Every structure is written in C-alpha cells, then in structure tokens.
Give the backbone structure.
Amino acid sequence: MKNRNGIMSSLFTLGAIGAAIFGMTKGFRNGTFQPLLKSIMGTAAPQMAQPIQGMMANQGSQSAKK
C-alpha cells in the first residue's frame, strides 16, 4: 500500500508540473505575460546596469594607473 501512495503522489506532482508548464506556454504565446515581463525588465535592467557600469569604470581607472 505504501508504494501505491508514492506512485499516486508522483503522478499528482507530474500532473501539476505539466499543467503549470502548459499554462505558462499558453500565456507566453497569447501575450498574457508581456506586460509582466516588460515591467520586470523595465525596473530590473537599470538597477542591474548601474553596478556593472561602476565595475567597468573602476577597471578603466585601475588600468590607467598602471
């Protein structure tokens, strides 16, 4: 009996993962996620770019000192 419960749990988990993948795929195709992705990329991209620009500026000043 324990084995049946494990199998049922595994099948339920696989079904839930499959449904989530199906829903996300369908959402990407019909454009449901486009506003969400734009808002995430609109706020995250400048915040990520600032430290990178700072690192690049520091490397440029260090190579000029050598």
About this structure: The two ends are 72 Å apart (CA to CA). The chain is about 90% helix and 0% strand. The longest helix spans residues 34-65.
